[in-house]
Amino acid sequence: MDKKKLKIARDKIDHLDKSIFNLIKKRTKIVKYMLNLKQFKNQIIDQKRIKIILKDIRKKSIQHSIDPKITTRIWRAMIWSYIDFQKRNFKKK
After folding, report:
1. Residue-wise pLDDT tens digits, 7-46
2. CATH architecture of 3-89
3. How would you write the chain as a 3-class SS string?
């Protein structure tokens, strides 16, 4: 094992993780805004939209030679994490 190359690769991953973190921060801000637009708690989950998003992610993954199982799992976890966030933060108007 080449420890120097491994360190360089890990540094690249760390840099990407910082970018991902900043994107999650931006996404969270938008989700908070969207939550304020929802009048009823049952508006939080849109199964039809979730299916479309996951289907699109799978298609894009295949087109770009990324294992669709990885991307689908990531997106599913992200979607349900934000659903949980919205349910916990929903305030009746």
Report:
1. 999 999 999 999 999 999 999 999 999 999 999 999 999 9
2. Up-down Bundle (1.20)
3. CCHHHHHHHHHHHHHHHHHHHHHHHHHHHHHHHHHHHCCCHHHCCCHHHHHHHHHHHHHHHHHCCCCHHHHHHHHHHHHHHHHHHHHHHCCCC
Q: Tokens at residue 1, please?
A: 């094992």
**Measuring CA to CA, which residue among 87, 52, 58, 51 is closest to residue 74?**
58
User: What is the C-alpha separation between 33 and 75, in angstroms, rounded?
Assistant: 20
Q: What is the pLDDT of residues 36-73, one digit of tens each?
A: 999 999 999 999 999 999 999 999 999 999 999 999 99
Integer Cα distance of 36 and 34 in angstroms: 5
- The C-alpha atoms of residue 63 and residue 39 are separated, in whole angstroms, by 38
Tell me the angle at which helices 47-63 and 68-89 cross, rounded to the nearest 10 degrees.
Answer: 150
